What we know:
5 helices
Amino acid sequence: xxxxxxxxxxxxxxxxxxxxxxxxxxxxxxxxxxxxxxxxxxxxxxxxxxxxxxxxxxxxxxxxxxxxxxxxxxxxxxxxxxxxxxxxxxxxxxxxxxxxxxxxxxxxxxxxxxxxxxxxxxx
Length: 123
């Protein structure tokens, strides 16, 4: 059970850093603004996406958030990662920009699986 808890916190921490902290700190940089434009999305989408990514990652990292709220956060972040892969593949073809969201998605799935293992052990 200790290994499961370690894996959960490492994977959830990585998700928090990549989907919460980084977007919060970099969403208004020129690279982020141009990246959203390059994919064909309006600028308000960048702001909305940043807010939802930060809220979702906070829901995952905060132990007081439980149950359905945490499940919605996992689902929302999963949809974001799959959509990012599809968007980059549609515009630039399959490559590094398309693979990275899938790597983060794999980490998210690992966090979700270990979250359920920890939840089941508490019952």
